[in-house]
Input
Amino acid sequence: MSDNNWTKTRNPAFNRENALHMDRIAKTAFRPIYPVIARNAMDATGVRHGRCLDLGAGPGMLAMAVAQAVPGMPVTAFDFSDDSLEIARENIRQAGLEKQITTTAGDVHGMPFENAEFDLIVSRGSMFFWDDLKGAFAEILRVLAPGGGTYIGGGFGSLKLRQHVIEEMAKIDPSWDCYAKKKTDDNGLTRFEKMFSELSCDSHRIINDDTGFWIVLSKREN
Ligand SMILES: C[S@@+](CC[C@H](N)C(=O)[O-])C[C@H]1O[C@@H](n2cnc3c(N)ncnc32)[C@H](O)[C@@H]1O
Output
């Protein structure tokens, strides 16, 4: 998809300072959204078993929310920022989840995983930064197991939570670029539809409502 696609947000610098900033807001303004998004992901995909992968996990909050929602489910927190993963490991340790959640460094466009390794693939607030959405989703479909599903996108879980985050973020960082305020136009949705038909996934659904913008892909059982 072209560079000017609507999902692009301001140019990020994935440095330590921004990783620490994400950690701070994930523990304050964003804190209540992660358990809701984890629950929404399982409701939307129907997947509550097997292995979970959190793409662009940052400080690891969604990975931890999934792990807490399904005790015993192995979760991999994946990110290309070593600074973020160092922060995530400390958060996971403090939550006592180090036996359930592992961290892996790498780029979503070429992941160090076997085919069909994960049943539930979640991701929040990361795809807006990916360089090549089609390449990234092809890679995601490669590591998705038959019977599995994805819940990938951005948002805050509900209208109430979105309002809460916008109010809290206005106090913390008035310059915050809230992509959730941007509305997905029909053109953007059509381009996603075209992309998924070209990727020939078994089924795809785009959720674009008060919970956020989420891409639900699924793979049939063999
Ligand atoms: C805005 S943060 C969101 C963090 C976390 N998902 C959350 O919601 O709290 C985006 C994260 O995506 C990661 N990221 C961006 N592009 C990536 C890529 N191509 N491969 C892996 N991680 C990526 C960044 O390092 C960053 O930690």
About this structure: The mean pLDDT is 90. The beta strands are 52-55, 75-79, 101-105, 118-124, 144-154, 203-209, 212-218. The domain at 16-218 is CATH 3.40.50.150 (Rossmann fold).
